[in-house]
Amino acid sequence: MKKVLIIGSGGREHALGWKLRQSYDVKALHAPGNGGTEEGSARNISIDGTKKENFHYLFNFVEKEDIDMVVVCPEAPLADGIVDFFNLRGYDKIFGPTAGASLLESDKFFSFDLMNDLGIPQADSIKCYSTDQAERAIEKLSTKKGVVIKARGLTAGKGVTVCDSREQALAEIRKHAEKYGPEVLISKRLFGEEFSVFGISDGNEVLPFEMAFQDHKKLCDGDKGPNTGGMGAYGPAQIVSANTIKKINYDIMIPVVRRMKDRGYSYKGFLYAGMMMTEDGPKVIEFNVRFGDPECQPAMMLLKSDLYHIMSSSLEEKLDQAKMEFNSGASCCVVLAAKGYPEAYEKEKGLEISGLEEATEMKNIKVFHAGTRKENGKILTNGGRVLGVTSYSENGIEEAIGLSYEAAQKINILGGFHYRNDIGRKALRKWN
Ligand code: AMP
Ligand code: GLY
Question: CATH no. for residue 61?
Answer without folding.
Answer: 3.40.50.20
